[in-house]
Amino acid sequence: MADDQLIAALDVHTRSEAEVLVQRLGESVGYYKVGMELFYALGGDMVLWLKNEGKRVFLDLKLHDIPNTVGNGLCSLLRLRPDILNVHTAGGLRMMKAGAEALHRAAEAQGIPCPKLIGVTVLTSMDAEDWRGLGHTGTIADAVLRRAQLAQEAGLDGVVASPAETLEIRRTCGDDFLIVTPGIRPAGVGNDDQRRVMTPAGAIRAGASQIVVGRAISGAPDPRAAAELILKEMEEAL
Ligand code: C5P
After folding, report:
1. Most buried residue among 60, 67, 106, 174 by CB atoms closer than 10 A?
2. Phi, psi of 61 (to 5 degrees)
3. With a cut of 0.90, is the ipTM above it?
4. In this structure, is the dihedral angle defined by the CA atoms of residues 227, 77, 109 and 180, taken in order, positive or negative?
5. Is the CB of 12 under 6 A from ligand 1?
6. Which residues form the Orotidine 5'-phosphate decarboxylase domain (predicted)?
7. SS3 state of residue 47
């Protein structure tokens, strides 16, 4: 199994909490997700710190705005050298295209590798009722697949989706398309606010490129033991 397949979400809001968690996880985790909780609290500092520690970083800010703003916003994040950035596919094809093009141009101009750019399809916390509440008439699965196809057409490297939709996206978008899946709950761990969940093994078997795990690691009495158990489960699933 590749050592980048487990991404631990650093969903904390102080530098000391983040440092303690990264230290406790040690060599077991090489990839971290920095989301809005940590980024809004500390700006890019933790991303730079993680990169300096030799970790890879998925900067999960889910950009969703007009095409020009998203393109420029992504370029502003480039200085932090994240390995993965994301936008929300709900911004549509033109927005995603503008983001991908601006990011590639900026990376090329600066002579640095371009981060992978992926699109959030439908949040894993949403269920059918939430979806209908927004006025949608089709299913979440259909919307996720449609959005994955649009992301691919826009030149994105992949998507964020729930493990439940992964098989179909893999079939449609091919082996090189990144599918990053949150909503991961090992057996016996509660769902919290997540709705479309699956076990680590289930997600890997469905064809996920990488899985994102937050509270099942950070909230465990021994986060390192929890991460190692998840890695073992992923290994066995392959
Ligand atoms: O604690 P838990 O494992 O549920 O955390 C999942 C992480 O993945 C959170 O940081 C959340 O913001 C993120 N995420 C998600 N669903 C998406 C995109 C990102 O849960 N569609």
Report:
1. 60
2. -110, -5
3. yes
4. positive
5. no
6. 5-230
7. helix
d(CA 193, CA 121): 17
Is residue 43 within 8 A of residue 15, CB to CB? The reply is no
Q: What is the Cα–Cα distance from 11 to 38, expressed in whole angstroms? A: 6
The letter for the amino acid at 63 is: L
- Cα–Cα distances (Å) from 108 to 76, 124, 151, 164, in that order, read 14, 33, 21, 36
The percent helix, strand, coil of the chain (3-state, each to 5) is 50, 15, 30
Rounded to 5°, the CA angle 192-194-199 comes to 95
Residue ranges, the chain, pLDDT below 50 = none
Please, what sign has the CA dihedral across residues 31, 195, 134, 150?
Answer: positive
**123 in contact with ligand 1, CB cutoff 6 A:** yes
Establish whether 69 is an annotated binding residue: yes
This prediction's pTM: 0.96
Which residues touch 43 (CB under 8 Å, ≥6 apart)? none
**CA proximity to 177, closest of 198, 201, 208:** 208
